[in-house]
Amino acid sequence: MPHAIITGITGQDGAYLAELLLEKGYVVYGCFRRTSSANFWRIEELGLAGHERLHLVEHDVTDLSASIRLLQKTGATEVYNLAAQSFVGVSFEQPIATANITGLGALNLLEAIRIVNPAIRFYQASTSEMFGKVQATPQTETTPFYPRSPYGVAKLFGHWTTINYRESYGIFGCSGILFNHESPLRGKEFVTRKISDAVARIALGQLDCVHVGNLDAERDWGFAREYVAGMWQMLQVDEPDSYVLATGRTVSVRNFAQLAFAAAGINVAFQGHGEEEIAVDIRTGKTLLKVDPRFYRPAEVDHLIGDPALAREKLGWKPETSLETLCTMMVEADLRRNKTGYSF
Ligand code: GDP
């Protein structure tokens, strides 16, 4: 039975990856950071809580000695580093904590692998945020990076460190440059889930209006469950490499909101420009969405669209779920949750 470590088990990708690895017969050590209130709702929602091969372990990726002991204790042969301060907005407020967790965390794990057992395979969760102010469209593995946030800069450090340990020490380190990937398990601080949750509450009469930031931002949004399968596939091939996982389609926040309202049976029309832009219910004339500059970022990533050709060719990976299906899945989950009042 293979043993794997997932750092960041409490996050969206950690939960889906644990589900996949348990299905494949792995023993999974799911690491979480000590917080005053540990939050395992995703593990619970997927029905994984209490699984006999899932061990939840308190671990801090910024602690090298703890990382060394973790590898020794678990005998893991695969490490998936999904731990991060992963919210771009927060990274502007907490740049040093973000650099420590998101950047140095990857280095600590790679050092621990080098010390304990250099044959351990390592997955680094890199991100399209590293492309930031994009230098070419669509973005591929060879597109130059231009990060636009402390989060993007920290992730770039983890990305290059993974490549450097591959080239310097022959460590099987793979970097997955994943474009935005969403699901009903996305946190509400991200715009898709913030919108799907708000739309559900508006449809249920629990909320009047949602306030969002930049409606013009465009993202290449895929379904997270498919993206974690790509992570696993990267560690199963003969040679380590870096891969873009993306859908190849980009959609604005405005259009995502329109899809989300439609999924709840509400047709909206957008009116006005900039900070004055609103979305109005065509049937009732009510304003259901407003722009609030408080949600603007000091530096914005305007447009992301990835080309996953390499992953398709080398891993046989391809996205299957359309944004329309994904958005409907998210709104339906939030309608269900908000009806019962049990929503995280
Ligand atoms: P990111 O791509 O990792 O930053 O994912 P997010 O879901 O946090 O943001 C995606 C895009 O949506 C960014 O360009 C944000 O500026 C934009 N956006 C617009 N309104 C909001 C909002 O209310 N919350 C968040 N999180 N993002 C918003």
From TrEMBL:
<keyword id="KW-0521">NADP</keyword>
<keyword id="KW-0536">Nodulation</keyword>
<comment type="similarity">
    <text>Belongs to the NAD(P)-dependent epimerase/dehydratase family. GDP-mannose 4,6-dehydratase subfamily.</text>
</comment>
<dbReference type="InterPro" id="IPR016040">
    <property type="entry name" value="NAD(P)-bd_dom"/>
</dbReference>
<comment type="function">
    <text>Catalyzes the conversion of GDP-D-mannose to GDP-4-dehydro-6-deoxy-D-mannose.</text>
</comment>
<dbReference type="GO" id="GO:0042351">
    <property type="term" value="P:'de novo' GDP-L-fucose biosynthetic process"/>
</dbReference>
<dbReference type="GO" id="GO:0070401">
    <property type="term" value="F:NADP+ binding"/>
</dbReference>
<feature type="domain" description="NAD(P)-binding">
    <location>
        <begin position="5"/>
        <end position="330"/>
    </location>
</feature>
<keyword id="KW-0456">Lyase</keyword>
<dbReference type="InterPro" id="IPR006368">
    <property type="entry name" value="GDP_Man_deHydtase"/>
</dbReference>
<protein>
    <recommendedName>
        <fullName>GDP-mannose 4,6-dehydratase</fullName>
        <ecNumber>4.2.1.47</ecNumber>
    </recommendedName>
</protein>
<dbReference type="GO" id="GO:0008446">
    <property type="term" value="F:GDP-mannose 4,6-dehydratase activity"/>
</dbReference>
<dbReference type="Pfam" id="PF16363">
    <property type="entry name" value="GDP_Man_Dehyd"/>
</dbReference>
<dbReference type="InterPro" id="IPR036291">
    <property type="entry name" value="NAD(P)-bd_dom_sf"/>
</dbReference>
